[in-house]
Design a protein that fits this description.
alpha+beta; globular; five-stranded antiparallel β-sheet
């Protein structure tokens, strides 16, 4: 079963609206998002945070992705689930 929630935020002066799909797997819950045309999965790590995993290597995409933006979205996901 999966749930969906929306994150609305501003990053570096630009508004963002990101739909997050929560996917419950056998031993963990992951959070799937599309950020600037990149499919990213945020999964829990050993320290209680989430790490970003891309479905494709980031260098295979036409547009680069701001790593700071990924950190910001990860923080927002953590805030949402706590």
């Amino acid at each position: 079963m999966s749930d969906v929630f929306t994150l609305k935020f501003e990053y570096k002066g630009h508004p963002h609206i990101v739909e997050v799909t929560t996917a419950h797997q056998q031993f963990k819950t992951v959070y799937k998002v599309v950020i600037q045309e990149h499919e990213i999965t945020f999964e829990p790590d050993e320290e209680g945070y989430v790490r970003a995993v891309s479905s494709k290597p980031l260098h295979d995409h036409l547009h680069s992705l701001d790593v700071g933006l990924l950190h910001h979205v990860a923080e927002l996901i953590i805030q949402h689930i706590r």
